[in-house]
């Protein structure tokens, strides 16, 4: 006998009485599984090709308000792009390792978003936010960025987050 239903493999249940080829829905025989040997590969629908809940209804999907009224316009596209960039930056800030951060930075760079790490540059309060100071005896280092505490980002040369930096200060 074939066991079906919600009862576990060791628990008795209503599916115990089923014969091979029958189902719990009225005892009708089950349809045989399609053979992959005779299938035309150009018409095969695999798990990645099958329309899922998000793509089955197409562009006028009422469950997705951004597509319910038709194609997105310029401001809506820009807002969605910015939301996705913000989400990737959020993930970047919380990434557990350098490899993950590197991959996220590569993805951002591919769409025109660059990381800002001004280490060694002259501190500019118009482009950087001071998060602290590092004392130094070297007068040449005074007023330069010692390290970046929080990476900044620019989207196509427009700053979307200023970097927070530690600045050298002469003792």
Which tags fit this structure?
single chain; about 170 residues; alpha+beta; Nucleotide Exchange Factor Grpe, Chain A, domain 2; three-stranded antiparallel sheet; 3 helices; elongated
Gyration radius from CA atoms, angstroms: 29 Å
Count of strand segments: 6
CATH architecture of the domain at 113-170: Roll
Work out the oligomeric state of the chains in this entry. Answer: single chain
pLDDT average, as an integer? 75
CATH class of the domain at 113-170: Mainly Beta
Beta fraction of the residues? 15-25%
Q: Biggest β-sheet: count, sense, barrel?
A: 3 strands, antiparallel
What order do the SSEs take from the amino end to the carboxyl end, as H and E? HHHEEEEEE
Shape: elongated
**Count of alpha and pi helical runs:** 3
In CATH, the homologous superfamily of the domain at 113-170 goes by the name Head domain of nucleotide exchange factor GrpE
Structural class: alpha+beta
Describe the protein.
With 171 residues, this protein is an alpha+beta fold. It has three helices and six strands. Helix 2 runs antiparallel to helix 3. The longest helix is centred in the middle third of the chain and has 21 residues, at 74-94.
Entry summary:
With 171 residues, this protein is of the alpha+beta class.
Produce the secondary structure layout.
Elements: H1 65-68, H2 74-94, H3 98-110, E1 113-116, E2 129-136, E3 145-150, E4 152-155, E5 158-161, E6 164-170
Parallel strand pairs: 2-6
Antiparallel strand pairs: 1-4, 3-6, 4-5
Helix pairs in contact: 2-3
């Amino acid at each position: 006998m074939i066991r079906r239903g919600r009862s576990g493999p060791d628990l008795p249940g209503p599916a115990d009485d089923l014969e091979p080829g029958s189902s719990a829905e009225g005892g009708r025989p089950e349809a045989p599984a399609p053979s992959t040997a005779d299938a035309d590969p150009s018409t095969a629908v695999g798990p990645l090709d099958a329309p899922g809940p998000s793509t089955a209804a197409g562009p006028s999907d009422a469950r997705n308000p951004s597509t319910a009224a038709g194609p997105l316009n310029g401001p809506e596209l820009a807002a969605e792009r910015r939301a996705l960039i913000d989400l990737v930056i959020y993930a970047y800030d919380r990434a557990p390792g350098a490899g993950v951060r590197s991959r996220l930075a590569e993805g951002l760079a591919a769409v025109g978003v660059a990381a800002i790490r001004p280490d060694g540059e002259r501190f500019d309060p118009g482009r950087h936010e001071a998060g602290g100071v590092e004392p130094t005896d070297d007068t040449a280092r005074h007023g330069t960025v010692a390290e970046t505490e929080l990476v900044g980002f620019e989207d196509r040369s427009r700053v979307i987050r200023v970097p927070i930096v530690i600045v050298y200060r002469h003792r």
